[in-house]
Amino acid sequence: MDNGKVLVSLVLENSPAARSGIKLGAEIVSWDGMTGAEAFERTSWSENGTATDEGKRFNQGRFMVRAPIGKEVQVEYRNWGSSETERTKLTAYDDQFETLKKTKNKLTPADLEASPIEGEMLDNGYGYVKIKHFLPKSNVASPEKKLADLLRMFKAKNAKGLIIDLRDNPGGEDQLAANLAGFFVNKEKIYEYVSYYNRYTGKFELNRNEVIKVKPSKPYYDGKVAILINSRTGSSGEGMPLVLKGMPNVKIVGFTSTAGSFGLVSSPIEIKMPEGYVIHFPDGRSLNQDKTVQGDADASGVGGAVPDIQIPLNEATFKESVMEGQDVELKYATGAMER
What we know:
InterPro entries: ClpP/crotonase-like_dom_sf (IPR029045), PDZ_sf (IPR036034), Tail-specific_protease (IPR005151). One of its GO terms (molecular function) is serine-type peptidase activity. Residues 100-312 form the Tail specific protease domain. Helix 8 links the parallel strand 10 (225-228) and strand 11 (250-254). This protein folds into two domains: 16-101, Roll (Pdz3 Domain), CATH 2.30.42; 110-338, 2-enoyl-CoA Hydratase, Chain A, domain 1. With 339 residues, the chain is of the alpha/beta class. The protein is built from ten helices and 15 strands.
């Protein structure tokens, strides 16, 4: 959604929308008797909770076009580059959740069996590291060793800087995230203190035995670093950008902040709802070095690791990223290190 415009980012082949003439990048002028913006704003449901306003809006875009099977919707739209408004009627059909699957990243068994870290030298002279998750596996090489080897290679090849890609990283173990962050610090830092909710006192209390620290590791990388994030960078995936943010050689880059879901769970808080539904809340909070809650979004929907360089989501970047398939975030990350 850009300045009140709702642009189509996904059209499945042979779907009713594709057959009707709606194309990728089309502007939805009206939807089911409302303007496109009104239809977008009234959409609130998601298959999982969202902590930030940015995460909520991402899911509004995913669910705006879903409806009970058989429901008919009148649509007015303008295809990209056209000034003509066209009208059509769409009928909801059973797509076996394909539109949701294509807009929700999920680790595959192959992802979990392979090393969570991949890297290469880019043609532009920058090092690139993709960290898919922070879930250690006993049958693959140590993630710490993999990253150390890549950093040695980048130094040997005089890389101009390093891009760490944490987009869509769902998290895993905080200790592993702290260990990997250790290659980018030259003195010990607090990754997190932890406090848990005490059901007897009704207060959160610090667990002094649970402190995670970022300890310097070799090889130490002190070059320019750009960390790529998005609204699907969650849990301990948010740890590295949170702990490295503010360092003079590090820039956080993305369209949005991270997911803002940095809470911890030991014995979840349970609330029973009508009709047998049960809601579970994390009972732990991650605290920064000042023992203030970090990472989790607040009541206004603001939270997570916030980009130092926030890429504008407008028609130009929509066209580049969605329609032309360019990696806009990677381009901005490179630009950040060339300044």
